[in-house]
Amino acid sequence: MGKKGKMFAAALALTAAMGFSAGAEELPQGGMNGPMAGVGVEADYDSVAYASESASQICDIYLPEGEGDFPVIVLVHGGGFMFGDQKMGILQPVIEAGTANGYAVVSVDYRKSADAVFPAALADVKAAVRFVRASADTYGFDGEHIAVWGESAGAYLSLMTALTPEVETLDGDVADNAEESSAVTALVDFYGPVEFFTMQREAEALGNSVNTDSEGSFESKFIGKAVAADEETTCTTYWETYREALPEDFTLKAWIQVGDSDQRVPYTQSENFAVRLQETIGEENVMFGILEGADHEDAQFYTEENLAEVIAFLDGVMK
After folding, report:
1. Given 3.40.1410.10, 3.30.470.20, 3.90.1150.10, 3.40.50.1820, which CATH number is that of 46-195+246-318?
2. Under a CB-based contact definition with an 8 Å cutoff, are residues 192 and 270 in contact?
3. Looking at residues 54-74, what average pLDDT do you find?
4. d(C-alpha 141, C-alpha 230), whole Å
5. Residue 114 pLDDT class (50, 70, 90 cuts)
6. Average pLDDT in the 172-194 region?
7. Alpha carbon of residue 73 to chain centroid
8. Residue 52: CB partners within 8 Å, gap ≥ 6?
């Protein structure tokens, strides 16, 4: 068995030990590799400003049927930190699944790297979480039960939001609702980049052709300089840099899922993240799975079956 096969087998063993089935054999094959087509869910509140520094600091709010208070999914889109918005088609299955199961979904846009570099986009997502708490009475949110759910670059912004709740420097220039906390109850990470400084080496080890170290890469533009040029600067974007700043009573439940055929972000980024997060918050609090044959943005992540598993995970945490 080759290195990739051994790592995959080890990951499956870890997954099985935690009682989480990735469901690869039950899910359809085939990649999405781009936004999903189709008509999206109509927002109850469209393009609501959650902060005041940029026109990009807006969100769409989707409410389920019934009376609040509704647990909230703060949904964060991908796009290499350069593209996309809160209405992307790839988000629609998550919005539908969330609202159908009693969740308010707040789909968030943020500043792109062409407008402002790190920590701007992260500061925006943190501000969106604070907005949810500050606006709980207005929209019927349950401000005590908030999950942050991201895909690709949005997964990175989500995990950083979840794991740096008290790092004020990462609030950047956004002071809106500063009296509120940006802490969350749960994290859902679909195929997110995690540690930029090691991505190139991990990609090469898997035979992937991406070059994240170059000055023109998505990650370098997000940071504001080439990833490989300055390790100290690049490490300011990595969650473990702030590990000691986690509060003593910190709690989090995390769902991390990736495809082993991801050609854009090495799947080992998610695998390593799961292991290190288990060491930080406990194995019982981290659910990790690999979808066999799935690429980046693959349709396997967005099947009814897979989303039902994620929602069931959130139900156990948020309700």
Report:
1. 3.40.50.1820
2. yes
3. 97
4. 42
5. very high
6. 98
7. 11
8. 176
Classify the C-alpha dihedral 56-51-133-139 as positive or negative: negative
Which distant-in-sequence residues (6+ apart) come within 8 Å of 280 by Cβ? 243, 246
β-strand partners of 136: none
Q: In the structure encoding, which two tokens stand for residue 162, read together?
A: 């979840």
pLDDT of residue 41: 82
Q: What is the largest CA-CA distance in the chain?
A: 56
- Contacting residues for 232 by C-beta, under 8 A, at least 6 apart: none
Average pLDDT, the chain: 89
Region 281-294 average pLDDT: 98
> How far is residue 51's CA from residue 49's CA, in Å, rounded to a whole number?
6
CB contact at 8 A, 223 and 118: yes
The reported pLDDT for the residue numbered 96 is 98
User: The whole model's pTM is what?
Assistant: 0.89
Instruction: Provide the angle, in degrees to the nearest 10, between the axes of the packed helices 267-281 and 3-17.
Output: 40
Task: For 223-236, give one letter per residue: b (16+ CB within 10 A) or e.
Answer: beebbbeeeeebee
118, burial (CB in 10 Å: exposed 0-12, middle 13-18, buried 19+)? buried
